[in-house]
Amino acid sequence: MVLHSLYTNLSNQIKLNLRSLKRWCSSRKIEHGPINWNANKVGNLSVARIKDKSLTNLYTYKQRYLMSTQMERSKSAIQPPVLGNLITVLSIDGGGVRGLIPAIILDFLETELQRIDGEDARIADYFDIIAGTSTGGLITAMLTAPNEEKRPLFAAKDIKKFYLQKCPKIFPQDRNVLTKIVKSLTGPLYDGKYLHNSIRKRLENIRLEDTLTNVAIPTFDISTLQPTIFSNYEMKEKPYLNALLSDICIATSAAPTYLPPHHFETIHEGQKHEFNLVDGGVAANNPTLIAMGEIAKQLIRKNSDFHVPQTLEYRRFLVISIGTGECKKKWKYSAKEASKWGLLGWWFNANGSTPLLDIFTQSSTDMVDIHLSVVFKALDVEQNYLRIQEDGLERTLSSLDRATKDNLEYLIEAGEGLLKKKVSRVNLETGKFVPYSEKTNEDALKEFAKQLSCEKHLRDLRSPRPIKANPEPCIMSETKPNFGAFEKPSINV
Question: Where is this motif: GXSXG (predicted)?
Answer without folding.
Answer: 132-136
